[in-house]
Every structure is written in structure tokens, then in C-alpha cells.
Design goal:
The chain is mainly α. Helices cover about 65% and strands about 5% of the residues.
């Protein structure tokens, strides 16, 4: 996700105003006003179509293909563009192969053993990136691999139809959180959430994003026959995970001097900019489902 406020240059940061965003009065015309919603809607349609319409057996490999550019962005970013193309491509491919191997093992009933390829990939990334922030290169394998495993596991458990509804619901929470944060952050402004990590994010945007997630997820669960109130309450609190995923990537980008992880998606930045909240939310939901036996649809049985 991006900052709550649309334009970093109009964030209103000046003497005595470091802790507040100006809100509506700071808005200026920006081409992202068109590109961001258009590409956002397009990506949402593609994502839902892939989850609902694609046979479950193809979903894991779609994840791997989507994760390849994300791995490229991560390794390039933490190397601060100081790594030769051949080694960058090797690390990207190694990360993708590690994730694919982990998914392959997990789908064949070896969930604990499936983390071994991720560990091997992290070790390889550490060695390949020995002069390009090795620890961060290795961490990228886990940062990308664990959400991939979580999404695939949620998609097929306890059955493909149930899993598809869970994944779509997860997307709705993340997208509503992102959109609500952007809208409320722009319109209201006010105190900033974490100026040192992401100067554009405000408390108004954060709370607005959580309220939006509650409304959207409550309606979604209500439409498929579940209790709206329980679902809305769950989404309100669970949206904090999406906010946290956004802040984590913001920290990494600021740590290595990047505004966006890439430029692949007009109006959104890179793949990591688009998926940062999804990464965190997928892992957290998988922990709740497989560890606490939560049914995120709040009806039927897992």
C-alpha cells in the first residue's frame, strides 16, 4: 500500500507541522487520481477471477509467477541497486524456486518439512548477497515465501470452495483497508501515525481504513450467509495487521532509500507496494485458521 495521503509533496511537513497532515486543503490534481483507481479495479477483477475461476491446482503456480517480480524488487531494493544483473537474476530465480519447492512439499502433506527449501533459499541468498546486505537478502526469502505458503494453504483448506471464499474475503479486508486509509487520510489529515516510518500515514487514515474494512467484510459475509456483526468486528481489528504490513515495507523502503519498490503498476508503484499488506494479512490469517482453528467465514465448519 501507499501512504494515506496521495501526494508526498503536499504532506504539509514544515516547521511545527511535522506531526500533522493538512488534509483536504492540501489536495492537488494528480494523474494518480485516475491511474490508481483504474489499475486498482483492474487488478481486483483479475485477482478475484483467478481465485474463483481458476482451478485450484493452478493457483499455487500463479502465486509463484506473481512472486518472481516481487523477489526481483526485494533483492534489488535491499542491494540499493549496487548488484550486477546476473547475480540479481540468480537471487530472484533462487527465491522463486525455493518458494515453488516449499509449495510442492506442502501440497503433498509435509507442512513442516516445506520450510526447508525456504531455509535453503535464505542461505543461498545470504551467500550470493554477501556484499549486498546479506541478512536482508536472506530475510527476503522468508518475507516472500511465508505469505505464498499461507495463501496456498488457505486456498485449499478445508476444501477449494471454502478456501476461495476465505481468500476473497482476505482480499476485501486488505483492499478496503488500503482504500479507506487513502480516502480518510486525504480528506481529514491530522496527526501522523508514524512520521519516522511513513510521513504520509495519519491516524485518521488508519482508523478510516479499519472502519472501511469492517463495513466491506461485514457486507461480504452477510451476502454469503454469515453473521455480519461478528465479521465486521473481526475485520476492524484484523485490519491492524494490514496496516502493520504496510508500515513494515515502508520501514524497509526508507531504510534503503526508496520511495517505491518498483514502477511496474501505474499509480501504485511496484508489486511489493501492492502486496505488502496482503503478505502480513495472509500469514496472520493462516496462523488463526491453522493454529487457533478460526473459521473466518463465521459459519459452517472447517
Amino acid at each position: 500500500m501507499n501512504d494515506n495521503t496521495a501526494s508526498p509533496n503536499s504532506a504539509g511537513i514544515g516547521p511545527g507541522r511535522h506531526d500533522h497532515a493538512p488534509g483536504l486543503r492540501s489536495l492537488r490534481w494528480n494523474i494518480d487520481w485516475i491511474l490508481r483507481p483504474l489499475f486498482g479495479i483492474f487488478m481486483a477483477i483479475i485477482a478475484i477471477a483467478a481465485v474463483v475461476g481458476l482451478p485450484p491446482k493452478y493457483f499455487p503456480w500463479l502465486i509463484v509467477l506473481l512472486w518472481i517480480p516481487a523477489a526481483y524488487e526485494w533483492h534489488r531494493m535491499v542491494a540499493q541497486n549496487r548488484i550486477e544483473t546476473v547475480r540479481l537474476c540468480l537471487m530472484t530465480g533462487m527465491t522463486a524456486v525455493s518458494i515453488a519447492a516449499a509449495i510442492f512439499l506442502m501440497l503433498r502433506g509435509a507442512p513442516l518439512v516445506s520450510v526447508i527449501p525456504l531455509a535453503a533459499g535464505a542461505a543461498a541468498a545470504f551467500l550470493l548477497g554477501r556484499d549486498s546486505n546479506s541478512l536482508w537478502q536472506a530475510a527476503g526469502v522468508g518475507y516472500l515465501g511465508l505469505p505464498a505458503l499461507a495463501l496456498v494453504a488457505l486456498r485449499v483448506y478445508p476444501d477449494p470452495a471454502h478456501g476461495a471464499r476465505v481468500i476473497v474475503g482476505l482480499f476485501f479486508i486488505v483492499w478496503a483497508t488500503d482504500t479507506g486509509a487513502l480516502v480518510f487520510g486525504n480528506l481529514i489529515g491530522g496527526p501522523r501515525l508514524a512520521p519516522s516510518l511513513s510521513p504520509g500515514k495519519t491516524w485518521a487514515g488508519t482508523i478510516g481504513g479499519s472502519l472501511s474494512a469492517a463495513l466491506v467484510y461485514g457486507c461480504y459475509i452477510g451476502l454469503i450467509g454469515g453473521p455480519m456483526e461478528v465479521a465486521a468486528l473481526f475485520a476492524f481489528w484484523f485490519s491492524a495487521v494490514a496496516h502493520g504490513g504496510d508500515l513494515l515495507e515502508s520501514f524497509v523502503k526508507r531504510r534503503f532509500g526508496f520511495k517505491d519498490s518498483g514502477s511496474m503498476i501505474p499509480g501504485h508503484g511496484g508489486i511489493l507496494d501492492r502486496l505488502d499488506s496482503t503478505f502480513a494479512a495472509a500469514v496472520a490469517l493462516a496462523i488463526l485458521v491453522f493454529g487457533a482453528h478460526l473459521n473466518p467465514l463465521f459459519w459452517g465448519h472447517l
